[in-house]
Structure formats: C-alpha cells, structure tokens
UniProtKB/TrEMBL annotation:
SUPFAM superfamilies: Class II aaRS and biotin synthetases (SSF55681), Nucleic acid-binding proteins (SSF50249). The keyword Nucleotide-binding applies. It comes from Candidatus Eisenbergiella stercorigallinarum. Residues 148-440 form the Aminoacyl-transfer RNA synthetases class-II family profile domain. The gene is aspS. This is Aspartate--tRNA ligase. Residues 203-206 are annotated as: Aspartate.
C-alpha cells in the first residue's frame, strides 16, 4: 500500500463513501457531482457524504459497468450513483491534496431527468424561494450541506456539554391539551373528537421533570402559529431547551448557557473544519457575555441613537441590532444578555422580582443582532402561581396536571429555550433564518 493510500485510509476510516484501501486501490461510492469532458479524458467530481473528490477519468483505462453488471454502452451523467475502484494519486493542486484515477466504475442508479437547478457551483444561482422549492436537490450543493454539518456539530456540542453537567435528555409530547404560552399563536387540531394543540414549547414537561431529575434538556420541534412573514420567523423550529432546579437565581441559567455555547463553539473546528473554512465562519467569543437590564437597554439605545422609544414592553428588531452593535463596541462581545423583562410581556409562569413586581427574573440572549434565547426563573410556589393565573383571567382547572408539581413541592428552578435555526443563521451570518432550516415551515410553505 502506498503512503498516500495509507493517509487516505487513516483519514476516511469510518466515513461513508470509502469502503477499503487495498493493493494500492481505493474502493469508494458516491454521486457524480460534476462531469466535464476534456480532450482525451474527463474531470469527474465525486460527491461523497463528506466531501467532493476530484477524479481523472480516462475511458481507455476504466471499465464502466451498468446496474446489471454488464458493460455500460451509454454516457455517464451527473447525479448517477456509482461505486468505483480507483488509484489514489498525489495532486497538490487538488483541494484534498490527491485525486482518484478510476479503474472500474459500477453504475448503481441512473437519474430519470436532468436537474432542474444547477447545484455544482460554489453557490446556487437562484432565489431563496427556488432553492427551497427544490430543497431535496439543492441540499446536495456543497455550501448548502455545509450549513447543516455545522448545525449538527452545534447540537453535538450542546448535548455533550449538558450530559457532562448531569442533565438528563428527555422527549416530551408534541400533541398537548394546553398551550404553554397561550394566546392565538397556537396550532389547533382535532384529537379523536377532542381539541388538542401542537406544542409551543416543552415548558410544562420540562418543569415537571425537574421534580424528577433536577436537570433535564430536550432538543426537538416547537410549533408557533405566528402569522409573521419575516427573515427571522419560522412556524416550526428546533428548540434547544433545558431546565434546572435548586437554583439561587436566574443568573445561574445564563452562566450555564454561556458555558454550553462556549463548549459547542470550541468543538466546531474539531468536528467540521472543512465546512467552517468553506463558509468562512467567524467563531465568536462567548466568555464572558455581558448583562444589561431591559429598561437600561431601552434608554441606552434611545440616548445613543437619538431614537424615540415606541415599543415599551419589548425590544423591536432594530433595537436588538443597535444594542448588539453598542455592546460589541463597548465590551467586544457579540452576545448580550438582556434581563428583567416587563411582567406584562412574559408568560404566567415567569417569576417576578420581589422588589419590583412589574419586572420578571427573566432574560433574552441576543447574538449578532437577533434574539436567539428566552429564559428565566419560574414560579415554584402553588399559591403564587394560582394567584397569577387568576389575575390573568386563566382557568386553573385547565392546567390541573401542570399544577400538580406546584401543589406537591417544587424547588426553585428555571430554564431556557434557544432557537437552533436562529443561532445557526447568526453564527453563519445568513440573511434569512430559513437558510439554516432543512425544510422550512412558514406561512407560505408546507412542502417539501
């Protein structure tokens, strides 16, 4: 076995695509990503699960077999799935530092039609809507699929950190009898003659499970029936949620999230170095993340930008961008925790500040101009929770199963929910959150 083949074998051990390296030959499978005919040979770019590999195809030196094993009389086409045996040859000009010279190609499948979009360029020359219309195909583009390799690495980093911190992974129902947030932004459906909903968050179940395991997390789908048509909203997204008990204050939640993000970001160069390079990703520092109270943030933005305050109970999208700009200039951080949101803007389970019940022990995390996380300390006392629900005109009987935990003893606890697609989009500096979602669901799109 040549030294180059040893290097390839060491690099590709366990990867889909490479099957063996034997007698100087590589056995590999993948799809023909691009085929360019030259004089006497062709450049064939093979797309494997991890990368694009340059191949030099010389017809007189390569046996080509069809799906039935008989000699193939037709031409090779892009998007054919093939298995090949090839010689690995050192080639410094290649992205990998080597190229393959096929000796035998076995065609495994033949596409019935040509591709409706061009996917083999650096970027897809089409609008976002077209890219999403043909999502099963456009995800084969090198840059498109790099996004989701990075997203996968983030999830692996989050999961690894939380498990190291003794969080138990749970899987909660997505068909529920009550909405965690309430209001109109909830999908209703018929459940065998009863009214049910798609879960807005795993909130109630996370809190229930704190009474069981103390620390729990879930990474799963979240549904919001919000009729927003913006670059920052999805109607189904992936929530990264955790909840923890026996806390002294909501600041512990912020510190845990900061450490989780830092761990995941530090893992990225190890898990997906090629993708980070391809997308020219700027990995931010998440140590330490500064804090600012909500009303201080509003006043700071108004003063520094001579901007009137319009929305008194929340930050509007422009304010989020301006605040991140200011905090980066003053602290160097591209993250900022905004704390103590108004009680009127937070859900019924948010704990209020004792000294000032008009604000809650809650926070949002902003990252590069966009809110990516909402969290806070929860009410754990039964009488306090009951009183707040009644003050909001809610019927406690509709939340009987949820209130069991308050009746029968809960520790001080809290948690948060992060939007995975939003976090990915800001990390990769994408202009639309749908670019960081495999198959987006918004007010216009339910397919593919």
């Amino acid at each position: 076995m040549s030294e180059k083949n040893r290097e390839i074998q060491a690099m590709e051990t366990g990867r889909p695509g490479f099957e063996s390296v034997e007698k100087g030959m590589v056995s590999i499978h993948g799809s023909i990503h691009r085929l360019r005919k030259m004089s006497g040979f062709s450049f064939l770019i093979l797309r494997t699960a991890h990368e694009l590999i340059q191949c030099i195809l010389e017809p007189e030196k390569c046996e080509i077999l069809g799906p039935d094993g008989a000699p193939w009389e037709g031409a090779l086409k892009e998007e054919m799935c093939i298995r090949m045996e090839a010689l690995a040859v050192e080639e410094p000009r290649s992205r990998t530092g080597w190229e393959l010279h096929p000796a035998r190609i076995r065609i495994l499948s033949v596409p019935a039609e040509s591709m409706p979009v061009v996917i083999h360029g650096k970027e897809i020359p089409a609008s976002l809507e077209t890219i999403l219309d043909y999502r099963p195909l456009t995800l084969r583009n090198e840059r498109e699929r790099a996004i989701f390799r990075i997203q996968d690495a983030l999830v692996r980093g989050f999961t690894e950190f939380l498990q190291q911190e003794d969080f138990v992974q749970i899987h909660t129902p997505k068909l529920v009898s009550q909405g965690a947030e309430g209001g109109a932004n909830i999908f209703r459906l018929d459940y065998f003659g009863k009214e049910a909903y798609l879960a807005q968050s795993p909130q109630f179940y996370k809190q229930m499970m704190v009474g069981v395991y103390e620390r729990v997390f879930e990474i799963g789908p979240v549904f919001r029936a919000e009729k927003h048509d913006t670059a920052r909203h999805l109607n189904e997204y992936t929530g990264v949620d955790f909840e923890m008990g026996y806390i002294e204050g909501f600041e512990e939640l912020c510190c845990m999230e900061e450490a989780m993000i830092r761990h995941a970001l530090q893992k990225l160069p190890e898990l997906c170095p090629q993708e980070l390079k391809l997308l020219n990703v700027r990995i931010p520092q998440a140590d330490p993340i500064p804090f600012i109270r909500f009303y201080e943030a509003k006043e700071l933005i108004a003063r520094r930008f001579n901007r009137p305050v319009r929305e008194k109970e929340d930050l509007d999208p422009e304010e989020e961008k301006l605040l991140c700009q200011l905090m980066e200039e003053e602290t160097g951080s591209e993250f900022v925790f905004v704390t103590h949101y108004p009680t009127a803007k937070r859900p019924f389970y948010a704990m209020e500040e004792e000294e000032n019940p008009q604000v809650t022990k809650s926070f949002d995390l902003l990252f590069r101009g966009l809110e990516v996380t909402t969290g806070g300390q929860r009410i754990h006392d039964y009488a306090v929770q009951l009183s707040k629900m009644k003050a909001r005109g809610m019927d406690p009987e509709q939340f009987e199963s949820y209130l069991q935990i308050h009746k029968h003893g809960m520790p001080p606890h809290g948690g948060l929910g992060m939007g995975l697609e939003r976090f990915t989009a800001r990390l990769l500096e994408q202009d639309n959150v749908r670019r960081a979602c495999l198959f987006p669901r918004d007010i216009h799109r339910i397919a593919p």
